[in-house]
Amino acid sequence: MAGVNKVILVGNLGKDPEVRHLDNGRAVANFSLATSETYKNKQGERVTNTEWHNIVLWTPLAEIAEKFLKKGNQVYIEGKLTTRSWDDQDGNKRYTTEVVGREMTLLGGRPDGSSSGTGNGGDNMAESPVSNIPEDDTDDLPF
Amino acid sequence: MAGVNKVILVGNLGKDPEVRHLDNGRAVANFSLATSETYKNKQGERVTNTEWHNIVLWTPLAEIAEKFLKKGNQVYIEGKLTTRSWDDQDGNKRYTTEVVGREMTLLGGRPDGSSSGTGNGGDNMAESPVSNIPEDDTDDLPF
Amino acid sequence: MAGVNKVILVGNLGKDPEVRHLDNGRAVANFSLATSETYKNKQGERVTNTEWHNIVLWTPLAEIAEKFLKKGNQVYIEGKLTTRSWDDQDGNKRYTTEVVGREMTLLGGRPDGSSSGTGNGGDNMAESPVSNIPEDDTDDLPF
Amino acid sequence: MAGVNKVILVGNLGKDPEVRHLDNGRAVANFSLATSETYKNKQGERVTNTEWHNIVLWTPLAEIAEKFLKKGNQVYIEGKLTTRSWDDQDGNKRYTTEVVGREMTLLGGRPDGSSSGTGNGGDNMAESPVSNIPEDDTDDLPF
DNA sequence: TTTT
DNA sequence: TTTT
């Protein structure tokens, strides 16, 4: 029964997150994330191999994604692999594998090129680690 | 372009690995791995949620899997996520996500209940970490 | 300011955990964990390199360690690196680096070779993943 | 004997790497890396907790660090924990724990603010993942 | 399809 | 101090 199911990604968003706000007050964000590796092949040519991942974030990460993540941003995401099935129009069972994030950190510079020290305020935490994992004596919400 | 694409799993094999030996001398092993988590739901009932992962191992991990891994065995696998596409009989594009392992450790007791000290020899390393990552001054092959 | 500080270990306890119950109701467990890697050196000799880690677990993982972990057990531990300083008898500043666990899974067979189905009861969950990270709609305590 | 000893860090360099080139042709780089987490304490005040890690990189990562890493840069580092002992001037045994990197990715923007598209060339790969782990059919050196 |  |  013991199990570990962990995914660690550092990549760039292929597009802005799509965020849906559910009736129960929760939100869910979806976006694709590209992780690229570069190497030289036998011919000595530089080759880039890009892998795309389907990311799913739930409250409170979904709201943070909505506010701070944009197409092109580089993020660290830790989560778990989940595969769900559905029936397509031909009646075939199909499977989609997604990474459900549980920790997220926006990497690199200012989220959208804004300078620091703006009155925005939210900017101040955009590079902080955010998660839905409580620390001792802490409030894990970034603001 | 920087990227990290890492998966860490501890789970149990759903069945024996299927190993194909290719014409080019390489081998590839496939098997499904279950990772389970148990929790209590709101009604206080214990619930087990199992996720199945498609594992792919190439030489030399494939041969090690062939020799030492059996249905039910618990293993640690580190690898990367890859999604490949193919066309089904209805002409639809379909996708399969797999974990391509790059490091593997057989966990727990003797692989199949055999006692230690058999003449088999190979048994002695079945719980050693195996990988295709060279260490300094080392031979990464387990035997 | 963004940061990730993650340690993932699979190893064996060098001795039984030492558990202290604090006045504030919390408990803390300490033990050393060995992670070994085996390789062949240039002379073709098998060499084992063992690294020892100082593990610290707080409530509720400390109580779980107290009940289920014993010298020799193999565990998966995920946590973070922390270094604390203290002054030795010569007035020198000294540093100790520890891994503060936040998720733990007992690996392999029965904790101490006991068969399943004992009246102990607690035994039943000893191989379940345990953590202090809440899941949705779940009770993360193992019992 | 099975073991996993893995550290994953995303942090910022506290100072430029110190690189020594050894007589045997190998190089070793040392620097400290800060990983910070921010949270709100019980008083609702934002608190930042910074942990410092001793990083050690060997050839070829050492040379890459020498060329591309500078104080303040944000990097992803994957490696293993090692503790080595030494005797201090008072004859006491002392221990230092370090993270020996095996994979590294420079995060965020241009390494030192240089614009892209320079003739430098090396710039082009500074954000690529670098490691001493061979891929199939690849040259793992970044240039 | 695994495991407890 | 563990494990195989």
TrEMBL record, chains A, B, C, D:
Keyword Metal-binding on entry: no
PROSITE patterns attached to this UniProt entry: SSB (PS50935)
CDD domains cross-referenced by the UniProt entry: SSB_OBF
SUPFAM superfamilies, per the entry: Nucleic acid-binding proteins
Keyword terms, alphabetized: DNA-binding
InterPro entries associated with the record: NA-bd_OB-fold, Primosome_PriB/ssb, ssDNA-bd
Comp. bias regions, Acidic residues: 134-143
GO function term, MF aspect, one: DNA binding
One Pfam entry name: SSB
Region of interest: Disordered: 105-143
Subunit structure: Homotetramer.
Listed name of the protein: Single-stranded DNA-binding protein
Name of the gene this protein is made from: ssb-1
